[in-house]
Automatic annotation (TrEMBL):
This is Pentapeptide repeat protein. InterPro entries: 5peptide_repeat (IPR001646), Pentapeptide-BTB/POZ_domain (IPR051082). It comes from the Bacteria. It holds the Pfam family Pentapeptide.
Amino acid sequence: MDADELIRRYAAGERDFTAVNLAGAKLIGANLVGINLYAADLSGANLAKAKLWGSNLGGANLAKANLTRANLSGAKLIEANLRGAKLRYTKLFGANLTGACYDDSTKFSYGFNPEIRNMRKM
């Protein structure tokens, strides 16, 4: 599946995209509120400024994804792979990051403490 197909199907009312492969997809500014991307491969995807509040990204591979200025408020990111991801200015209010993994190359907003959010450093 590519980004255009995802956006088209989402606009038609579909919300469940479990385990979809969107590696490298360009979804800049996409409105994907409440989408289910559980266990999806979004490695290297560009989700800058995307609206993903209330979405399920549990178990998703977001390695090296660009989430700069994305809105992930209330999103589930349980056990997600955030190694190398860009999370600067990302809204994470109420997001569940329990068990999500990160590494030294993950870029967080100034002052963000992943340990307090129950994330795991790999």
